[in-house]
Amino acid sequence: MQFIKTRFNYLFGTTKGLILVAIAMIGMVTAVWGLLSGPMAEMGVRVVVIKLLHMDIMQAEREGRIIILYHSIAMAVVAIETYMITGLLKMKSFFKTAINVLITVGYLLTMIFGMGFAYFGHNWAFHGLYITGLSLIFFAGVLLCVALWPWNKEYYVADKEYAHTHSGFDLERAAFFATAVTTVLSALFGAVPGSYYGHGFETFLAENVIRYPEKTVMEYSIIGHLHIMLALIAVMITLIIGRWLNFKGILHKFAMPLMILGTIVLNLGVWGVVTPLEPVAHMVIYVGATPSMFAALLLLIWSWSKLIKDGTAHLKKPTFLQRLGALVRDPLQFGPTWQMLFMNFTTSGIGIFMAVKLEEIFRVWPAREERIELTGHWHALSAIIATIILFYYGDMIGLKGKVRQLYGWTILILSDIALAAVTIFEMKRLFITEAEQQPLVNGLMYAIDFGLGMLLVLLAVVMVWRLTDLFKGKGRWSEEKDQELSQEVMK
Amino acid sequence: MKSLFILSLRGRSPKQSPALTWRFLRRAAALLAMTILLAACASVDLNASMPAFDTGVDPNTWVQVPAGEFEFGQHEEIKSTETYEIMVTDVTTAQYADFLNAALADGSVKVDGDRIVGYYPGDVFRGVKHEEEIKAGDWLFLPLDDQSQRIQFDGTRFTVQVGYENHPMTMVAWFGAWGYCKYSGGRLPTEVEWEKAARGTDGRPFPWGDNIQHNNANFYSSRDPFENMQTFGSRTSPVGFYNGRTYDGYVTLDSASPYGLYDMAGNVWQWTGDVYEGMHYRFMRGGSKDTYDMDLRVWVRNNATPTYFSPGVGFRCAR
Fold first, then answer.
1. Which of A58, B9, B67, B233 is most buried by a 10 A CB count?
2. Are A202 and B75 in contact (CB under 8 A)?
3. What is the helix (H) or strand (E) element at residue A343, kind and residue range?
4. Selected residue of B44, B174, B220, B232 to mutate for chain A interface (largest A Cβ count, 10 A)
5. So what's the ipTM on this one?
6. Does B22 lie at the interface with A, CB-CB under 8 angstroms?
7. Chain A CB within 8 Å of residue B223 CB
């Protein structure tokens, strides 16, 4: 009994244990449900999995199923980010415990009963528990906002290295707070239409209503919700990585006000989509996205400069190659900001290019082609966020030496191969005709499947290691149960 | 691949391990990139031989769909239609070539360089965001210079590439589909008419029933005799192919709709006739040889500008 109790306390009572559970849950869902689409469906694996697991899949309900699948994974990611925040930032222990308990119960209910409802027959009690899970996550979000309240004098800072006002008001904490508050509010933009469309399972996917000149307020709300939630998850992971790397100095002082401004304006733009201001909302979104992305760029510049400086401190006059070597010496520290840069190729770049050339190119193509671009670029952003979490997790579990190198570079290279291939796949019509595309499509599919498949294998190896570790009396888990993320930020 | 491992592990020492790992990963990435590049550079023979089968389905057949209500769309909204007739199959390339020969002779279509154009009376333009004006005038029916075009023009007559006679007419713009149906005394079906003809009145997701199997329809990677996913990919099948017959050992399921229409799911997207207020896009139904099974559900919509053409888009007429 003691054996189970100590492990349970580690897995559900410590930051690192909670993160491990959430990563394992996401890994399992991704591995199983990844077999239901794309090449796996073509090879007949889908049919086998459906039969093996006794899934109950009706054609008319595909859209609803996918929405529940997205939410199940996304809520676990939100939970991981929340654990990181409660582990990194100062807050009262009551809030930390309450938030972690609520969000853990919330995402587990969402994932287990949501997927149970969507894929294994429609037990409406399961649907109720799925909604209960989402509600608990929402409440955890509200509590997080209270816990982060930046005007509490306890959290004021005096250290001149970090962005703050004359009175000591912590601008980094304010950025976390702004992101948390806007996330909670933006969740409502999904909750309200979700209740409307979810009744009777009569829902739709946003990518299927593109090009319709008339959209209802509920449709706009769904479209706004999915965009802003993903953007806010990305903003939050940027702040978390900044805290882990101990972002500070002059660039921190510029970045944090920009992050606050960008987050608020971006949200106002997205919320404006459901109001009569819709025609100008996109301009507001662009205006908001710019400072946020610029703040992330400042983090990148600071982080890379620090890596180079630290790595060449022993050299009098380092050469370019030595500087480069120092930059990439630790893939776990280099990886997150590299992925943020790479995101400009897979997500932002594509989005901007589409916006600029929409009428000239993309709206000449059939809607199904445009749908590929849309779904492709937000899947790519989601995958990039996942890899950034994995980089941080690798450091969190104390990977060192060649294992650290192997883990870090495997994630970076495999994910970038896959995501580069996804990007080329999205844009293929620019340089190849439908009739001639098959060999290119095959090649890209190999790259995507190889990259993502091997990434999942790596994750599986780590999870198996962590599972076996739990059976050891003095395994790594026993060290981690007393560690907290705030004690492990970079020097 | 073996040499890659040997090269990577040779002379390995604890101190060198990270560098070797890095080198190994770089080489693996380079090898993969090269494989993709080589695979992508493989040329595609767009005129590769096509198996010829007589399906026994006459493309000149029409059926009557009775007036009445039915469940429309994914969420089964009740809609109704008047009585109308609709073609049992997609318009074939042979039928379209006959139309072009007749229409060229009486001046209904014109050859404009490498394009066939015809008159369209235009749409009401409302200036809605993203809407493009479709003015009265000559519009593209089909291109002649595209490698995927199966209709050839020798300066006087239109002929069909051998083997494609009973395949659906593709590489035809919406105007070309509209022009054919009008010339034949019919019109393109509305989306409501199309869907009723495809699913009948019992709300089924596919023309033949609730579930889809590989030999129900021609869709992406459906392993039909016309596709080769290593080279040219998916190709069209003769109209009415999925009628329960066996062709050279390939067994098909009878996949007719409740009213006896074939190819209402897969093979080619089908242009429909609605012109919606405030948008110039035209809608297509049915999914195609290039889409996954989910797009073959009868309520799935696709749309494109009316000048769009593709090897995966065709049409049928109603009257």
1. B233
2. yes
3. helix A331-343
4. B44
5. 0.88
6. yes
7. no
CB contact under 8 A, A439 and B147: no
State the Cα–Cα distance between residues B3 and A477, nearest whole angstrom.
39
The H-assigned helical ranges of A167-249 are: 171-198, 217-244
Contact A436, B44 (CB under 8 A): yes
Look-up of token digits 């209910």: A109
B224 in contact with chain A, both atoms CB, cutoff 8 A: no
Give residue for tokens 């101190």: B15
User: How close, in Å, is residue A339 to chain B by CA atoms?
Assistant: 17
Structure-token pair, residue A280:
């100008």
Closest CB from B129, B221, B269 relative to A42: B221
Cβ–Cβ gap B292/A41 under 8 Å: yes
CA–CA distance, A325 with A320 (Å, rounded to integer): 9
The Cα A270–Cα A99 span in angstroms is 27
Q: Average model confidence (pLDDT) for chain A?
A: 93
Dist CA B269 CA B298 (whole Å): 11
Residue with tokens 């009415």: B240
Neighbours of B156 (CB within 10 A): 8
Lowest mean per-residue pLDDT among A146-160, A351-365, B50-64, B77-91: A351-365
- Domain residue spans of chain B: 63-314
B38 confidence band (pLDDT: 50, 70, 90): low
pLDDT reported for residue A201 = 62
For the segment A432-438, the average pLDDT, to the nearest whole number, is: 90
pLDDT mean across residues, chain B: 90
Q: How many CB atoms lie within 10 A of CB A162?
A: 18
Domain B63-314 has CATH 3.90.1580.10: yes
Residue A164: beta bridge partners?
Answer: A170
What is the pLDDT averaged over residues A38-46?
82
Three-state DSSP at B254 gives strand
What CA–CA distances, in Å, run from B106 to A109, B97, B100? Answer: 70, 14, 10
- β pairing state of B313-314 and B269-271: parallel
Q: Residue A29's pLDDT is what?
A: 95
Contact A150, A181 (CB under 8 A): no
**A58 — pLDDT class (breaks 50, 70, 90):** confident
Q: Percentage of residues in chain A with pLDDT exceeding 90? A: 74
Q: Which of A42, A202, A402 sits opposite B18 (nearest CB)?
A: A402
Q: If we measure between CA atoms, which residue out of B227, B57, B202 comes closest to residue A42?
A: B227
* A76 Cβ contact list (under 8 Å, min separation 6): A22, A25, A26, A29, A107, A111
